[in-house]
Amino acid sequence: MSALTRFLVAFAVSASTAVAFTGDMTHFTPGLGACGRFNTEADPVVALSPAQYGNDPNPNNAAVCGRWITIHGNGRTTAAQVVDKCADCPSGSIDVSPVIFDDIAPTSVGRVQVTWEFQ
Which residue positions does the secretion signal occupy (predicted)? Predict the structure, then answer.
């Protein structure tokens, strides 16, 4: 295999690997989110920290709005759609609707360590 071919294969593998974030997952009652959509507690939605949401002058136009993430924690996996920005969340942490939190742990727990990545 030529050096160019090895480089291209290594590049393709690294480009397809998702970046994983680690942080705390908490839950909130959704309403009108930063992406400009209204959601309820039954919707599979997530608010990202400012570090992952970004600082678009118009948050409705943020590149992350509408994207889905996969969340791993407590030996379980679930998916949620980005609809909001969590102003108080540190980088890597997320705030999810109760229906998503329940997929990972009982809401009574309040806070769970998770990893997540964009789909």
Answer: 1-20
The residue to which tokens 């998702």 are assigned: 18
Residue labelled with tokens 């002058």? 57
Rg, Å, the chain Cα set: 16
- Residue 52: closest CA among 20, 30, 27: 20
Q: How far is CA 41 from CA 16, 45, 53, in A?
A: 33, 8, 21
pTM of the shown model: 0.84
For the domain covering 19-118, report its CATH number: 2.40.40.10
Of 59, 63, 72, 61, residue with least CA distance to 21: 72
How does pLDDT run across 26-40, given as a tens digit for each residue? 999 999 999 999 999
The 3-state DSSP class for residue 2 equals: coil
CB atoms within 10 A of CB 88: 10
Q: How far apart are CA 66 and CA 84, in angstroms?
A: 10
Averaged pLDDT score across all residues of the chain:
90
